[in-house]
Amino acid sequence: xxxxxxxxxxxxxxxxxxxxxxxxxxxxxxxxxxxxxxxxxxxxxxxxxxxxxxxxxxxxxxxxxxxxxxxxxxxxxxxxxxxxxxxxxxxxxxxxxxxxxxxxxxxxxxxxxxxxxxxxxxxxxxxxxxxxxxxxxxxxxxxxxxxxxxxxxxxxxxxxxxxxxxxxxxxxxxxxxxxxxxxxxxxxxxxxxxxxxxxxxxxxxxxxxxxxxxxxxxxxxxxxxxxxxxxxxxxxxxxxxxxxxxxxxxxxxxxxxxxxxxxxxxxxxxxxxxxxxxxxxxxxxxxxxxxxxxxxxxxxxxxxxxxxxxxxxxxxxxxxxxxxxxxxxxxxxxxxxxxxxxxxxxxxxxxxxxxxxxxxxxxxxxxxxxxxxxxxxxxxxxxxxxxxxxxxxxxxxxxxxxxxxxxxxxxxxxxxxxxx
Length: 420
Ligand code: PLP
Fold this sequence. Notes:
By secondary structure, this protein is of the alpha/beta class. The chain has 15 helices and 17 strands. It is globular, with a radius of gyration of 22 Å.
């Protein structure tokens, strides 16, 4: 055991070989508009390593069968690979048991699942659902739908000028009526890293159940759901370098067991008759119909890949990029950074007075630089900062300082074109 720990410690101290990491991602090695691609739209979706592409190809070329009910070889291999992916997700999150891992289509579906099952079964008129002002629409609208259905009320912890929710504000919005608190771990629009363990402790003390939207933290931080203390944690496969259309809901076994099913269909039942249907055990109770088998297997490969890189090392490297990028971009005349939280990741939301974010992104694209322009599915936080949209550069562990320099040069070009 001591030996294992010391090997892990040695690996953690190794320098980050970004060129070697980049070589794992074929999409990064392309020219766009005649320039080497600078991919800075990782908060929207991340590129895929060869390990993921190979896992998908292997499933479709060799192991393509349906899961859980085939006795033939292909079905057995597919089932084994699918359940192995579940164990990978368990390990990635530090969850107690594989049955606490429910495969969903992504973060959005995971949150909808909790709202439609736990929420519908446990919330009543007068109850409160606590969100923050920096949530993605996926962590707002499912709760609004639940509130409409149950008569519960959505409350919002406000955001300060730096792009943080202060603890006093969070506590002010909590009350004995708060039945659910749901908040993002990292803001996709600002890059703010929220103190979710502390918030969870406060919410639990008020008697609320806690869901953490981990869509933006799972790709950038080591996650241990036990240390966060939350009750549900959701993330998306495509943002953790895996396939689209697959994601994970982690929930405490006791809660999942007590929740009603989400959708009805194959695999989620124990027995069906017209008189009475009984439901399967967790997690299958929440996985109706043929799931995205290839997606889950690809996600499992992505999580294995991340574990082999080491999330703590990746996070340390990204912190360096975040510091460098913040300094480099803040020094550009006419460029305003929205969101200056003390704890933040390498997400830069930019506003250039007089130039529409779409125009900024279009000029950058001519230089082969991929960024996002828009409200980032987080309109309330855009309103909070009084802007309709921003240009967002969001980095991952395969990005480099040189790419941040290319972004800065691209923004200089925007300046020349629009003369701001
Ligand atoms: N939550 C946050 C913070 C996000 O950034 C996103 C996607 O950008 C989502 C939820 C929704 O994720 P998905 O569209 O993969 O379901």
